[in-house]
Amino acid sequence: MSQTVLNKKALPLKASSPQTGSRRNMRAGVLHLCADLDYGDPAREAVTLAVLTQRLGWRAMIASSGGALVTEAERAAVKHVRMPLDRHGIFSSWRNRVQLEALVQRERPALVHAHGAGTIEMGCRLSLQHRLPLMIDLTQPLQGVPATHRLIAQMAQTSCTVRVPTRTMVEHLTSAFQINPAVVACVSPGIDLQSYNPAAISAERLHNLSRLWRLPEQGIVALVPIPIEPKMGHAVFLQALAQIKEENIYAIMVGSDRNAPGLRQEIEQSVENMGLNGKVIMPETCPDWPAAFWLANVVIAPNSAVRGQNMEILGAQALGRPVIVTAVGANEEMVLRDETAWVLPPDNPRALARALYDAAHMSTDLRVTLADNTRYFIEDTFPQANWFNGMMELYEALMFPAASKTAKVA
Predict the structure, then answer these.
(1) Quick one: DSSP state of residue 189?
(2) Alpha-carbon distance 225 to 30, whole Å?
(3) Rounded to 5 degrees, what angle do the CA atoms 122, 308, 271 make?
(4) Model confidence over 72-91: pLDDT tens digits?
(5) What band does 407 get if pLDDT is binned at 50, 70 and 90?
């Protein structure tokens, strides 16, 4: 299967500016479309890209319904325009079209970057009406419903590039939706190793998060950072935890149930039925992921449904934490089996309980060795510079296609 895979070597962030060189005779602007700027992968990627490109002299704009990451974007002088991109009713869609039209007319972006399936329709509309190059960023699988197939048909009418983070997503789009492999570019995700550095995590940050979550001082912390949605493994994890509930293990299951209303209540009832009261907490979001991983003794992704990436698993390994994942979707692409992680079959509480027990009782020497392995693995395979440079290559190929073809021939 043909596909584009970028960035095999770790490189520094590109220092070039869109103002230099014959192809960059203007201060290029990128309009990011994101449903919201809360803590999900699309929002985090949109803000990070906007901030980094702004520092290199590009103009970055984000249109979204707002959220916790707006402040971070605006601190870096990234323009944010609030509009209800997370809503798809008749009035909201009309309002979004009017506001986006005005924004494009005023700011004259050189490229539109749509983050997530919810922004594909608006991105395609802007691309077709204003002849703007379009990048569509998809980090998680699409639902096989009629609405999705209509979006795929809209995408086929544009000259877009679909960026995905893993081979799992390439296979998903090209097989399940027959998207032309030539328009799918695989750029691996990247971790900011300065933020995910033990030396950068202060005792105050650890204390604040520990107090917020009411963690016991001597307990073993198992962190499950995964959305509360069907087949994400929460029930299996609780069954595994119940098998070893005499151990001093406390679970933090961080995730939102906005895509599965009512599921949180079901899980809370399971916690009570299994006698795990006081050993499980379920915050919807995490305000400080590096601190959370530093507090955790093990990080777990027990999903049986396919996921396209798991940034939390990468962040945990960057901070030297052992991880347990299921052999499903892109999980295995995010770890080194038996070197940085336990890779287990899905829906197997007994195997998960055993791995959780082993992780909780690792010797100090083994824990130090594993921490070195995980850190080196992330430094070599998933540094943020590789991801950013790959995204910049895609931007320039979209904005300057003739020059890119000439460079490839040369």
Answers:
(1) -
(2) 31
(3) 110
(4) 999 999 999 999 999 888 99
(5) low
- Contact at 8 Å (CB) between 13 and 389? yes
Distance CA 34, CA 38 (A): 10
The tokens describing 142, both together, are 């699409």
Chain centre distance of CA 292: 17
Under CATH, domain 198-381 is a member of which superfamily? Glycogen Phosphorylase B; (3.40.50.2000)
Task: Please write down the HEC assignment for all residues of 85-140.
Answer: CCCCCHHHHHHHHHHHHHHHHHHCCCEEEEECHHHHHHHHHHHHHHCCCEEEECCC
User: What's the rounded Cα separation, in Å, for the pair 164 and 377?
Assistant: 21
Hunting for tokens 């850190």 — which residue is that? 375
Per CATH, 4-190+384-403 and 198-381 having the same topology is answered: yes
The DSSP H or E segment spanning 405 is helix 401-409
> What is the spatial distance between Cα 66 and Cα 41, in angstroms, rounded to a whole number?
15
| Burial environment of residue 351 by CB neighbours within 10 A (0 to 12, 13 to 18, 19 or more) | middle
Q: Tens digit of pLDDT for each residue in 337-357?
A: 999 999 999 999 999 999 999
Which CATH code of 3.40.50.2000, 3.40.30.10, 3.40.50.2300, 3.40.50.300 fits the domain covering 4-190+384-403?
Answer: 3.40.50.2000
Contact 184, 178 (CB under 8 A): no
Q: Which residue has the tokens 């055993």?
A: 354
Is the Cα dihedral 11, 17, 22, 24 positive or negative? positive
Query: 310: alpha, beta or left, given left = phi > 0 and alpha = psi -120 to 50?
Result: beta
Q: Which two tokens stand for residue 336?
A: 């080194």
Whole-prediction pTM: 0.89
**Domains of the chain by residue range:** 4-190+384-403, 198-381
Q: How far apart are CA 40 and CA 88, in angstroms?
A: 19
Phi, psi of 364 (to 5 degrees): -60, -45
51-66: per-residue pLDDT in tens? 999 999 999 999 999 9
Q: 361: exposed, middle or buried (C-beta count within 10 Å: 0-12, 13-18, 19+)?
A: exposed
